[in-house]
Amino acid sequence: MREALLPAADKVVAEDLEEIRSVRSFLRHAAEENRRLWSLAGPAIFTSVAQYSLGAITQVFAGHLTTLELDAFSTENNVIAGLALGITLGMGSALETLCGQAYGAKQLHMLGVYLQRSWIILNAMSVLMLPLYLFATPILRFFHQDAEIATLAGKLALYMIPQLFAYACNFPIQKFLQAQSKVMAMAVVSAAAVVLHVALSWLLVGPMGMGLVGLAIALNVTWWFTVLGQFAYILMGYCPGAWNGFDWLAFSDLVGFARLSLGSAIMICLELWFYMFLIVIVGNLGNAQVAVAAVSICMNLFGWQIMVFFGFNAAISVRVSNELGAGRPRAAKFAIAVVLMSSVAIGLAFFVLVLALRDVYGAPFTESPEVVRAVASLGLVFAFSLLLNSVQPVLSGVAVGAGWQWLVAYINLGCYYLVGIPVGYLIAFPLHGGVKGMWGGMLTGVGMQTVILVAITLRTNWDKEASEASSRILKWGGSAALKPDH
């Protein structure tokens, strides 16, 4: 019965995959799968890059104030807001598994309930995270951050509290739309948000002379514009069957849903915070302001590249969860192979580009020649970071689509925090490797995690994963999953 509901094109793919017997047949199916992936990944990449650009554009404006203000914004954006973003994005990513598999199984009524449950859980978590913003200065000082940077970053954090709750509302909406392949709507709203943000930032910092406070206001307004724009799209009826209005079922079965949300949060937070620790530890090196500025600029550019692969992450998560929910394991496995080939090719292109432009890519972010030279000195380790991280987000997307969040959380904990950070610290301080030593050492953790995820993906029994998809929906979805669609 479920197969009878599938689109004809999907039926053909599922059947044809069993008939791949030659290179020519493989290439034909790979081209078709690439078309499917890019129809998802293209708008998702644009959305990720556009939303990341909000912080990056703000950093460019801050960099043309003073080095101290650049450092303060970079620290708040990467450490304080980075902690909040990791938790909210991670917990919202539970919807990628549940909504994706429910959509593949044609149980559309569950998507709206899941969205509302995620809002409840994420906004409650945001309230719990308020002390992080209220006491940002003593928290940064506890980690031995430079006193001037910590004080100014703490003041800025107070202005950024509205952004925290925008995160809590935005990421569940995005996962809800992604599961239904409604990625173009997200891209349009994000494009409008970028235009609004540039105009507001220029107005508040330039003619009005409001400095960092103006940048904070612009960020808050733009993030809430994004949230309301996407929600307006849903309310206008473009998600029939998936959104049926607010439902009291959203307040039931929260424990099972929260469990998966927590696993998603831990998995993604351990990844995002890994690089946050790089900035915090670098703040303890000599000439801290220049070192933090150089690493922050590299991390800004690194974030742009990661946003590209977050687009692949979203696309492969949707493809895997939809195919497993629909009982098509061969299609899920084939999609993984195709997206990995594409992501590695793009990673190699970024690697070459960074090495070729290592002496100039820091200039747009600062007027300090010393900082530009420090950025150039990190070119090689930065390029290897981009190459390794062309694969890792894609594999994480596979994990989310399949519902392996807790497994990957344990892997991240071991590779990043028991191996990567200790090795980096050893090279940076006792062995006097400085910033390059710290970053290079931490890459050992990234490499180890990538190898383990590749091995797990290759050894997975995808037929078994498909058979377990419906039980996952019941386990983590609760009583709403028992209601059939008509």
UniProtKB/TrEMBL annotation:
Could you tell me the membrane topology recorded for this protein?
Multi-pass membrane protein
Q: Does the keyword DNA-binding apply?
A: no
* MF terms in GO: antiporter activity; xenobiotic transmembrane transporter activity
Q: Which GO terms describe its biological process?
A: xenobiotic detoxification by transmembrane export across the plasma membrane
Entry keyword annotation includes Transmembrane: yes
Membrane-spanning segments: 37-59, 79-99, 120-143, 149-171, 183-205, 211-236, 257-282, 288-313, 334-355, 375-395, 407-431, 437-458
Q: Which InterPro entries did the record assign?
A: MATE_euk, MATE_fam
Q: What protein is this chain from?
A: Protein DETOXIFICATION
Q: Kindly name one Pfam family recorded for this protein.
A: MatE
Q: Which UniProt keywords apply?
A: Membrane, Transmembrane, Transmembrane helix
Where does it localize? Membrane
GO cellular component terms, semicolon-separated: membrane
Protein family: Belongs to the multi antimicrobial extrusion (MATE) (TC 2.A.66.1) family.
Q: What is the lineage of its organism?
A: Eukaryota, Viridiplantae, Streptophyta, Embryophyta, Tracheophyta
Protein species of origin? Digitaria exilis
